[in-house]
Design a protein that fits this description.
Elements lengths: L1 E7 L4 E8 L4 E5 L5 H11 L2 E6 L5 H4 L2 H7 L5 E2 L31 E4 L2 E7 L8 E5 L2 E5 L2 E2 L2 E2 L9 H12 L6 E4 L5 E2 H7 L1 H8 L8
Parallel strand pairs: 3-4, 4-5, 9-12
Antiparallel strand pairs: 1-2, 2-3, 6-7, 7-8, 8-9, 10-11, 12-13
Helix pairs in contact: 1-3, 4-6, 5-6
C-alpha cells in the first residue's frame, strides 16, 4: 500500500491516492479540484484509478470529480446518500450535484481497491453523510477529525452532538492509527487522544458545545 497526498481546490483540500502497488490500481479520495494535477499524480504513480471515494459531499471535496470522469469515463464514484441533494435544492450550493450516477456507501460497507479493502465508518457531524474510510492502519478522516481539532458543525446538516458521538467512536478504535484528514497535516490517534480538546471532550462522554 502506498499513499500520495496533494492539496487541491480553492482551499487546499487534501486529496489522497490510495495505491495497491501489486495490482497497480488506486482509489482517489476526495478530489476537491485541480483534476489535471490529480491525473498527473495518478500517471506518476503507475496505477490505474479504479474508484473515487468521497468522505462527504461538500464542494471542496468533490470539485475535481467532473474533470477526472472526463479523463477516466465510467469510474465509480461513492458518496453517502445523506449528502446527495436534487438539482434546484438550495443545499447544492454547498453539496453540488455531481455529473454521474453515484454509488451509496454507509456504515459497515467495504470497497475493494485491488487487494486492499476500504471499510466505511459512518461519522455524521460535519455533515449528515460524512464518513471515515479505514484501510489497514490508516483513517481517511475527511472533515471529521483534524490534527488538534475537528470539522466545523455550523453548516447545513452539521451537528456538534453527532460530531462528538463520531469522535468518541474514533477514539475507541483499536491501535494507534494514522489519521489523514481533509485539511492540514496528518496525525495519529494516540496524539489526538492525548491532546485534542474535542476528542478529549468526546471521550469524557459529554456532548454540550458549551463545554468547550
Amino acid at each position: 500500500m502506498n499513499i500520495t497526498s496533494l492539496q487541491v481546490g480553492p482551499i487546499g483540500t487534501n486529496c489522497y491516492l490510495l495505491c495497491d502497488e501489486t495490482a497497480k490500481v488506486c482509489a482517489v479520495v476526495d478530489p476537491g479540484g485541480d483534476a489535471d494535477r490529480i491525473a498527473a499524480a495518478i500517471a506518476k504513480s503507475g496505477c490505474t484509478p479504479s474508484v473515487i471515494l468521497l468522505t462527504h459531499g461538500h464542494y471542496d471535496h468533490t470539485g475535481g470529480v467532473k474533470g477526472l470522469l472526463e479523463r477516466f469515463p465510467g469510474l465509480p464514484v461513492y458518496l453517502n446518500r445523506r449528502d446527495v441533494y436534487p438539482a434546484g435544492d438550495p443545499a447544492t450550493q454547498l453539496f453540488p450535484v455531481l455529473p454521474c450516477p453515484l454509488r451509496d456507501y454507509d456504515e459497515g460497507d467495504t470497497v475493494p481497491v485491488g487487494t486492499l479493502t476500504v471499510s466505511v465508518l459512518a461519522t455524521p457531524g460535519h455533515s449528515e453523510g460524512s464518513v471515515v474510510l479505514e484501510c489497514d492502519d490508516v483513517l481517511f478522516a475527511g472533515d471529521t477529525l483534524f490534527a488538534g481539532s475537528c470539522g466545523r458543525t455550523d453548516l447545513m446538516s452539521g451537528s456538534m452532538h453527532k460530531m462528538l458521538d463520531s469522535l468518541r467512536r474514533l477514539a475507541g478504535l483499536k491501535g494507534n492509527l494514522t489519521v489523514l484528514p481533509g485539511h492540514m497535516e496528518p496525525t495519529d490517534l494516540n496524539c489526538e487522544r492525548s491532546t485534542n480538546a474535542y476528542l478529549l471532550q468526546a471521550m469524557r462522554g459529554t456532548s454540550h458545545a458549551s463545554d468547550f
